[in-house]
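Limitations

Structures in this collection are predictions, not experimental determinations, and the ligand pose is part of the prediction. Treat each record accordingly. The example that follows, with nickel (II) ion as the small molecule, is included so readers can see exactly what is and is not provided: the inputs are given verbatim, and the output is the predicted complex.
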Amino acid sequence: MAILRYAVYRFGTMLLTLLVVSALVFLIINLPPGDYLSNQISELRASGQSAGVAKAEFLRAEYALDRPLYQQYLIWIGFIPGPQGFSGLIQGDFGWSFEFDRPVAEIVGESLWLTVLVNLAAVLFVYLIALPLGVLAAAKSKTWVDYTSAFVGYLGLATPNFLLALILFYYGHKYFDLPIGGLMDPQYEGLPMSWDKVKSILIHLIVPTFVIGTSGAAAMMQRLRANLLDELGKPYVETAIAKGMSPPRMLIKYPLRMAFNPFVADIGNLLPSMISGSVLVSVVLGLQTIGPTLLTALKTQDQFLAGFVLMFVALLTLMGTMISDVLLVLLDPRIRYEGREA
Amino acid sequence: MTNLPDGRYVDDTPFDATANIQTLERQDLDAPAWLLVWRKFRRHRLGLVSGIFLLLCYMILPFVGFIAPYTANERDSDYLFAPPQSVQWYHEGDFIGPFVYPTVAEADLETFQWKFVTDTTTPLPLKFFCQGESYPLAGLIETDVHLFCAPEGATIFLWGSDRLGRDVFSRILYGAQLSLTVGLIGISVSFVLGIGFGSIAGYFGGKIDWVINRVIEILRSLPELPLWLALSAAVPSNWGPVAVFFIISIILGVLDWPGLARAVRAKFLSLREEEYVRAAEMMGASSGRVIRRHLLPNFMSHLIASATLSIPAMILGETALSFLGLGLRAPAVSWGVMLNDAQNLASIEIYPWTAIPMLPIIVIVLAFNFLGDGLRDSLDPYAD
Amino acid sequence: APPLPPLQESSFWLQEVERGDLPPVAERIPTSPLVVDLEGRGRTPGVQGGTLHTMVSRSKDIRQMVVYGYARLVGYDHNYQLVPDLLLDFESDQDKVFTLRLRPGHRWSDGAPFTSADFEYWWKNIANNKLLSPAGPPDFLRVEGQMPTVTFPDETTVVFAWDNPNPNFLASLALARPPFIYRPAHFLKKFHADSADSAELAAEVEDARVKSWAALHNKLDNMYKFDNHRLPTLQPWINASSGKKIRYNFVRNPYFHRVDPNGVQLPYIDIVEMEIVSAGLIAAKSNAGEADLQARGLDFRDISILRKGEADGGNYKTYLWGNAVASQIAIYPNLNYEDDAWRAVLRDVRVRRALSLAIDRDTINKALYFKLAKPGAMAVLPQSPFFTEANRNAWATLDPDTANSLLDEAGLDRRGPDGIRLLPDGRPMEIVIETAGERQEVENALQIITDDWRNIGVKLVMRPLDRDILRNRVYAGSSMAAVWYGWDNGIPQAYTSPDYVAPRQQEFFAWPKWGQYYQTNGAAGEPPDMPEAIRLMELAHDWEMATTTEQRSAIWTEMLAIHADQVFAIGTLAEAPQPVVVNKALRNVPEQALWAWDPGAHFGIHRIDEFYFDPNGSD
Amino acid sequence: MTPLLSVRDLTIGFGKGPDVVRNVSFDVMPGQTLALVGESGSGKTVTCRGILRILPKVAQIRSGRIMLYGRSGEVDLTAISERRMRDVRGDAVSMIFQEPMRSLSPLHKIGNQVSEVLWLHKGASEREAKRLVLEKFERVGFPDPERAYGSYPFELSGGMRQRAMIAMAMVSQPDLLIADEPTTALDVTTQAQVLGLMKELQKDTGMAMVLVTHDLGVVANMAEQVVVMNKGRVMEAGPAEPLLNAPAHPYTQQLFEAAPSIPAQPHLAPALPEDDLILQLRNVSKTYRMRGKSAWKPDVLIHACRGVDLNLPRGKTLAIVGESGSGKTTAARIALGAEPPDAGGEVLFRATPDSDPIAVHKMDRAARTAFQKQAQMVFQDPYSSLSPRMRILGALTEPLDIHNIGTRSERRDLAARRLKAVGMNPDMLQRYPHAFSGGQRQRLSIARALMLEPALLVCDEPTSALDVSVQEQILTLLEEIRDRMNLSYLFISHDLAVVARIADEVAVMRQGLVVEQAPPDTLFYNPKHPYTKALIAAQPTPDINRPIDLKLVAQGAGSPDSWPEAFRFSNTVIPSLMQLEPGHKVRCHV
Ligand SMILES: Nc1ncnc2c1ncn2[C@@H]1O[C@H](COP(=O)(O)OP(=O)(O)OP(=O)(O)O)[C@@H](O)[C@H]1O
Ligand SMILES: Nc1ncnc2c1ncn2[C@@H]1O[C@H](COP(=O)(O)OP(=O)(O)OP(=O)(O)O)[C@@H](O)[C@H]1O
Ligand SMILES: [Mg+2]
Ligand SMILES: [Mg+2]
Ligand code: NI
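Predicted complex:
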């Protein structure tokens, strides 16, 4: 009950924060002088392509870019009607991408699931690799298992992502016939999901997942190991041993749960940081995720597109922190968020 | 011993009820905390070796110019992509001290690679304490004495040369100057902020926590990319790459703290409910003291591990933004810059030595890791 | 016209033809198709079939298919002469009246006839529609402020007429990115308010989630972007993929107008598969044999790895073509730089000459191009009739002594304690050169130039920026100097418009503001105020007014001489080899050729539709 | 008859240090109880842990054999593999740890942790396990087993946690139960109940038991065999009867002499003066909110204290005794401002006789610091109240450090002196808290509380883990300080003999209420309330010839509804505290 109440309260806070963030996002996007269309207009005019100019002028009015900034913001969110009536984010209208000349929803929709897919794969990879290895490294600290996993982890961390990708692609192709880049074999593109298609996607995901995931995995592993080592001496571990639990089971049930606290706190950051971390990787690996889209959108000041992507990432972040706050309470019953009289 | 008839066992060594109070060893009691930690640390061999290694690394930083046979941007256009050369001792069975064989480069227009032909008939002994290009020793004294240089008519590319004919070995040495220093500033900034805000939020909870958390959330959901874009246009154009990078790494640090702060906060929210924290509070300990003496030590392992983990990111991070013109770029030399140059297939397949800078990064990071591990162990009460 | 050879049906469309969905080949091609001359150019006739794989790095690059396909009203042949292509022929009356004649029976890729009505639709309903083109028809049609009169005497004839000559007209039609002065009227009419049923149109607008019919029309009408698979085309391949994809397929155009001497309809290759790949991976994928024809995204430095792949049993060969840009790496001192003192210095021709003289081009050549490029100033290439050794060598041979004395003469003889010269106002002479941090060659070359310039007391500070940021900074005059390629067109002919060597384009980074001034008719930028620049302006205008090739050649020669003498841009090297990966079974790809955007349209001028896969496989 | 467990020449040491257990040998017969008694820090716990090989990483079994003749034949516990050891632990041999508060995982519900044993060794289903566990909970005296099952350790009182631990060790019905001071935190009635349960189990299943205890009364009531340890060595061992009746070894004799008892003759003391009160609790109640079982269930309210009124005159000792879980600790914590009372309650503290009282429950920062210098607490759970990463030196000097008293070396010297005063060796100052025995930690806690020389000391079961001789020493110390410095104690204990010795007034609590309050002599010789009577009856005496009837005593006073009409109370109807005679108050209807 208390948790439910807290979750509801936390959700309210999230909405409020989201509103603040949206204003800031809008401000930041509009910080550089000019906007996409006026830049475009001057460029088009300069290169004598007057056809484009007209189109741009016309869009300017249509998207209220000629109004004062605060009005633009309110229209974008959907608080006040724009030239075509209410059509803002809260009404489900994500706006128009000038660069791609298509509705934002259309552009983003395509790369969104890819982004989520690649990042989920990476997150999964992180957990599947880092959790057992971290536990193992702690349980067998100062043995070759510990040293090897640390070495491999740091190898992944110390190699620039792109170089790592290149090496993996090159040798993966040479010796294991792994595909270079792309997300699936061409024959599956546009086909409905099938087992073969899934297999193809999985094979294509190997290298990107590895590249995006290694740093996360190494980080998680090492920190988990450190936290676990701290817990291993605690009396409750002895109690568990005295019950006759097997070490792996005991480790996972008791110390791991204790050691998990800092990671739960960071859940909120997991997806967003992977998304922003994978921007560069995606750019170099040619993955059609949302990262590269965001980069171009920002560079060309394609404001509705950039705004939407940023709001999406912000939403993920905020939801993440919210979930992590609620999870923290569930994880550790002692945690209360009340203040203390200082 | 005695066994009484009723089956009792009785010990019969003389019994002195007051024997347990021994004299105390003063010198051990006087030892300050760091000495105790150091004593424990000393026994952690890997950590100790790593620590000494790192210390040495930092100590030679001012003198890399002396050790390196070439200066950082010295080009020899006759030896592009020269492979690593080995220093020989025996020529045709005779010992003649350290020497190298001269090589000549030929362009192979079929493979588009440089072919290096070694002339194994004329050994050329290395020169020591010799004159080369001048460099500032310890950043101050301009000198041109090098520990060793290539003999006339030959080169000494211990780890090969790069596309412009620069010595990889020397550049790695010079690169250490930046890679081992500036990047770490970011870590420090982010740690100070992260631990500071995180512990305040976690320990006090309530309103302060709420406010700090909102700040964290907002900071985190705000895009960094536009910031970099704006910055890249705004940085004055005549700033040197190092100055730009310095600012960037500080900003990186300023933006990086929320993650750590959240972790610290979460842990402290839990730790503050521990009985010993209550006890300290009931003794009248100030909040700062509780955080410093009771909460932080219990989170030290995580912090140490996190710090170690940030190091490679910071060393490499220096180039991550270079696609926006904000990273460290030539003529500054750092390991990241060198690796950035090596990011192509040819470097992997044909000139693998251009990717050598990965090695020092890994070695340094592992050293920091073992050092951290040793430190962790010496702070761990259970490992005695 | 010679008699048509007996035509052969393509197996690719055979099913459709048999089903009756498609007319037989004889009815698909124009009554007088373009019969290509293969033997005359040393090519072999081929067979139809196969899929050609190639890669680009951004999804908007699928427009390369329009470039490579190179079906133009008139196009350049391999000798850079303009020949009719889509057109049956054309006539020019003193460059004032152009009569364009279409091929009777020519059809769009959807089978609708391609007639003068398509030109008329463009001229009346698009170029002169206030909503679709508020600024009126495109600028290349404007001669001395006057628009042509365009008439459509019959189905296959279109006439453009001016009072003054428009020598640039035909060449414009042959550009890599041509102005499409015709549109598939039968298709677009459905979306034009003048012709469509307003209720239906409103529904379409609603469907497409755009806000007006004009937006919808604009969205659909993308002859160059090539991203609308419903839009009929005249190119050899038609876009068969809709939506945003990683791989795009282009299938043969059943109505394409070219046939080979054996009566085989071109293109030979059935399908072109274009994959969007990160720029950094193109070399790796080529090395892995995943490209059948690839030059885009490959660089000189990739040659060694490509050659290695070949040696390791790859299925491709690597040809080395020449690059047609006037300079691989050129430094543009900004004559419109916002800092007054610096601007004065940069405008001093002695300074620019000295900077050029101090550069050790041979070392750069060796380090970056295996000595295979040609060191020299920014000048046209030998393939151009205006090439002279003198221009190439002007102020471009290493001579630090002369450079030093030139700088001394220019009043920069004071030096700071570190040996760096001081500007008249006492600031050190630190030239900040901004680059688009994408090419490593640039960085390496600047590294060498840094050392070279240090010898003459000039400090070079390199600053890599994002490409867009760099451009904006240059255009705004806040960049002191920038690095870019030399002129795109390093092989101008007399008929080539000299716009790009005159201060008429901001894209020439030495004079962004003068360029803007011209491009915006004075709305932005500033007028040229250096005598040489003004002279260039005059000459460019003279060229437009000139009526004979001789006059134009003379003008070109003079303009190039001014450039050579004034060193507006400091060139370094030209004609660097461009690797071209070609599948071993692919035929008719020239081993030696120029890799040029304009004129040339990259592969376009080499008529990619004539390339074919040898059924006997690789040699 | 073969013993179940046979320990021969067991020697255990830590790191490079000297042996802490030396050549210990004993046998445990099936169905019998072996009591391990001895001085605090003498190696009892280490020996027990050695049997199950649950020793700290740095400890080594240096020599000796531990043979178990159990269900699976004869095994040498020092030699078998870790894998086989796992089957022994928790199944054949289970253990109750000395410090139950630390030994339970703070993040898992009690029920989960207890039933786990059944899942592990008996393959019981979750429901089955829960049933068995609830049954055991009932037997160890949880008033509300369901609530305990769903509680986290921090939501339970010290005694409750200990009972959970006991239940955990007993659910699997082991062959051998090693109980390391299993009843230290329990009030005497509950203790009787638990001990009774153990006996019963022994009878039913033939379970053998190693019982570590400092309470000679318990030994007398439970053990067949006794082993007396001192400084790691066995001083005397043998059957209980002769050993208790006629201890042979001087240490054993000394130990028995030190045992406190409720004095035989009352000498009625006058009621305490009520004029100079150092601490006053007025109508203090505390309600805890326990999270509902799931997100959808409402929270459960727990009334830990209900309208507690207590007055502590300066220089006197007010003792609180009572049932485990009756709110003693809660009241103490409220008294020191560690927790706010429910609205309406008041806690007043007077630093000096003539100063104005400060309201502890609403102090500002400066007042709080001043107050904390005056009032200190000895925590019920010393292990938890010491930071695991702070050396003892740091922990002891911390109060001085906080209040800026003395120089570094002065502080250190004082710490060494205090340590000596509580009977420990100052060379232990550089150790971490985990490297101590339970009794030693308790003494550390006392030493720390005395560092500041406060005016008020709240002691929450300060001597529960101490053997009688050390306890004697500590009590003497406390008395001496009280007399010297006019210190006042709020003293919580379940050991009535200790209370009888040190207290000036005793309050008896049950279910959050003070049910009777009087000077000790009055209380012990003229108890009015049925609960008080039961308590006194349940106090075990170290006389093997006068065993108490555990069954009878365990029923205690029973539930309040079974009491005589006058004393009966329910959740809603609570009689008020009546003054029967001067200084003697009883909660009853008149
Ligand atoms: N980890 C450790 N490192 C060093 N010494 C230790 C450690 N643990 C316990 N000791 C020491 O071993 C001795 C025996 O401890 P043990 O816990 O067995 O005592 P005990 O008999 O159980 O005492 P108590 O009745 O106080 O619980 C004590 O002197 C203690 O200080
Ligand atoms: N944080 C808490 N949350 C919920 N319930 C609590 C909490 N702390 C204590 N309680 C409950 O309050 C009641 C009184 O607990 P308290 O610790 O005061 O008992 P006690 O008299 O000290 O018992 P013992 O002698 O066993 O230590 C118990 O029922 C306990 O479960
Ligand atoms: Mg013990
Ligand atoms: Mg208690
Ligand atoms: Ni394919």
